[in-house]
């Protein structure tokens, strides 16, 4: 009797382990107080001074106090601080604080722009620029915002990360560094990236000697620090980022962000063709641009995660003379990248992505041809399955949209695809996925249950649609292609193994590996995307979830039917049957 459940136990164990392991990819390091290295505990001491009160450009005295504190702290480290100041009277920037707390773009600014600049020289003037803004959010920009943020995370996290890096390099002799380090604390980011725009326009050092930029932002008070944006043609940029400790990034985020209308100080550097990367925590949007962005709510471990990633990058950059070439980061193609295990980054070029796509399509086409020739599947039923799977994906997107739209009505905010503030946002997120998963499980049990032929037909259908989207994204938005090509490729291998060998153990291995990879990719990715796009993005998230389930579910049902005690599998429900020994 026990033999009957071996496959069920194996299948369930793989799913549970992969799910937990996928979730652990989002784990962040614990803050250290060892000041020989990057110490988030030490950085917290800076933050207590910076985020003691709101300090937007409209909070004149508090804003000036933060600027003076930064200048004095850097001076005490032994660093020379330059003030880069612009008078409001010589600028044509618009953006005064209106009586309702919003930004009035018809009125000129009422404050001067004051950036702080530090140079840590190396053998070469070519260097990396570290950026963070020291002003907090003072005005209301979007529905649900309150302004008057204390700026503990946005951008206190960025500011103290740069201070801690400055401390570690403050007394390093120039001959010990192959390249230079430039640090800029920008002003008036929250009112239009004004400080960074002026630096990009007027700073000759940036224009002539900076070939790599690291901007440090925050959207939320806890969670992992994501590298969420890069410059274009980022192949060499990603080769450097790969040196990061505990990397956290997905090329789908950088691909999508590149076509969105969101901006940070990093945008100003992109506009003058600088290469680089942009970091931010992604957390509950209800702690973003509101008074709740304060010291009592932050997670100091998030600061440590910035340091864990950025410090190895700086160490590599300043210790290798090849980066002294001002044109080093010039490249002709982008990279595709994603976290596949905790601290493990998968990375390859967009050209390699095409190679993987060709391999996947070839295996899939060959496997389907063999299945049809051997009459292991019905062509008519497979065509029906194609329609059903497409309908399920569209239906899942509808479920996500309806729940997000109803949520917007309930909380009283206008529906927005990427910015919908909802307290308890995990409820609509979980509800959407439970409904979609429940409906698809019910359908699978009713439609094919223990019928392996039907399950195979639906695996063919799910693989086909994933393969189609892999083709589209590989050529139109390569950074998103990994979401479809790897599950499709592995599912194609499952189908090929079924046609070429009756070995039950081998079939268990390929089914298990396919399910594991699907979960390792999608568990942290879907959660991360949900945090990034908020409840409004449930339409896209449930659609992606349905794509993954179109492979994972039929593959799981196939695996559960394998009799591991036999050397051959039984293909039930087909004209041509394979018998066990």
List the helices and strands and how they pair.
Elements: H1 6-24, H2 40-50, H3 60-76, E1 81-86, E2 94-97, E3 103-108, E4 113-120, E5 127-133, H4 156-169, E6 180-186, H5 194-202, H6 204-209, E7 210-216, E8 225-230, H7 235-241, H8 251-257, H9 265-270, E9 276-281, H10 300-319, E10 335-341, E11 344-349, H11 350-373, H12 379-411, H13 426-447, H14 452-476, H15 482-500, H16 504-533, H17 538-560
Helix pairs in contact: 1-16, 2-4, 2-10, 4-10, 11-14, 11-15, 12-13, 12-14, 12-17, 13-17, 14-15, 14-17, 15-16, 15-17, 16-17
Shape: globular
Computed CA radius of gyration, to the nearest angstrom: 27 Å
Task: Name the strands of the widest sheet in spatial order.
Answer: 1-4-6-5-7-9-8
Distance between the termini: 18 Å
Could you give a short account of the major beta sheet?
Answer: 7 strands, mixed
